[in-house]
Write a sequence for this structure.
């Protein structure tokens, strides 16, 4: 049973005039069953720090605190929502810190005490950019429980030889285990987005699947999937001697990007770096 001492979200939103703004990618989630389910998916919140991005009216913030979060740091750029977050902070003394900032400009890996978890209903217009930035510092996080468009989660979890397999699949799975948890119907939001959403758990691996440099792996996957219908001996020409790179990595030149497992792309990235020496 919830111990949330605050008024209903719709009342709070009406009082603060918090209409969802398209420019901020805002879609508000009012269903307490759903926010509670997301909070519980993050596991034990009694240690370390939970970081939330774009909390808006605070439905998920309240669920995280109600689920026992020791410390929540909420990153919010909308002044109207910050006023609401301040009210939540008063109701849960010492447990909620509000950071008035653009999440794109914040190094979340330095916030609060470890272990760090990011739990958020992400603004869809910046969701993948944020994830890639966090993955660069994946070792600083224990877990991500995030809501994306279903199409993005399909890409995160995709296996080779599937239509959704691409750059995001390779880089995310190289560093993390990916587990889609549940879908959220568009009608659960105000205003409803045009697509179904999915909550996904992303857990950093103790070690990457294979050795590679992040920047080089990004270059290799950008070249390969930028022309995914072409054979790799053609799509990788922009990286140098494609035939030599493929030979070193032990990959057929007639293969296409979607056929190559994560470890294969890591081998290509190492080949690129070695040939540059």
């Amino acid at each position: 049973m919830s111990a949330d001492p605050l008024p209903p979200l719709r009342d709070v939103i009406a009082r603060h005039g918090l209409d969802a703004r398209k420019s901020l990618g805002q879609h508000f989630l009012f269903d307490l069953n759903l926010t509670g389910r997301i909070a519980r998916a993050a596991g034990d919140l009694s240690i370390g720090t939970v970081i939330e991005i774009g909390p808006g009216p605070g439905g998920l913030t309240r669920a995280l605190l109600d689920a026992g979060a020791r410390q929540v740091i909420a990153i919010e750029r909308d002044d109207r929502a910050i006023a609401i977050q301040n009210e939540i902070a008063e109701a849960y003394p010492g447990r909620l810190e509000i950071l008035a900032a653009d999440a794109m400009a914040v190094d979340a890996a330095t916030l609060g005490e470890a272990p760090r978890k990011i739990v958020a209903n992400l603004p869809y217009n910046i969701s993948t950019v944020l994830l890639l930035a966090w993955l660069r510092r994946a070792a600083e996080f224990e877990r991500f429980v995030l809501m994306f468009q279903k199409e993005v989660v399909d890409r995160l979890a995709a296996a080779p030889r599937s239509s959704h397999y691409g750059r995001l699949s390779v880089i995310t799975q190289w560093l993390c285990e990916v587990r889609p948890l549940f879908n959220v119907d568009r009608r659960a939001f105000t205003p409803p987005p045009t697509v179904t959403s999915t909550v996904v758990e992303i857990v950093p691996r103790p070690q990457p699947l294979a050795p590679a440099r992040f920047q080089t792996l990004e270059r290799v996957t950008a070249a390969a999937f930028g022309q995914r219908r072409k054979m790799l001996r053609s799509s990788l020409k922009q990286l140098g001697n494609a035939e030599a790179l493929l030979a070193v990595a032990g990959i057929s030149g007639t293969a296409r990007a979607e056929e190559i497992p994560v470890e294969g792309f890591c081998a290509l990235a190492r080949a690129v770096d070695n040939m540059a020496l």
In short: The mean pLDDT is 92. The domain at 214-276 is CATH 1.10.8.100 (Helicase, Ruva Protein; domain 3). The first strand starts at residue 28 and ends at 29. Residues 24 and 123 are 7 Å apart (CA to CA).
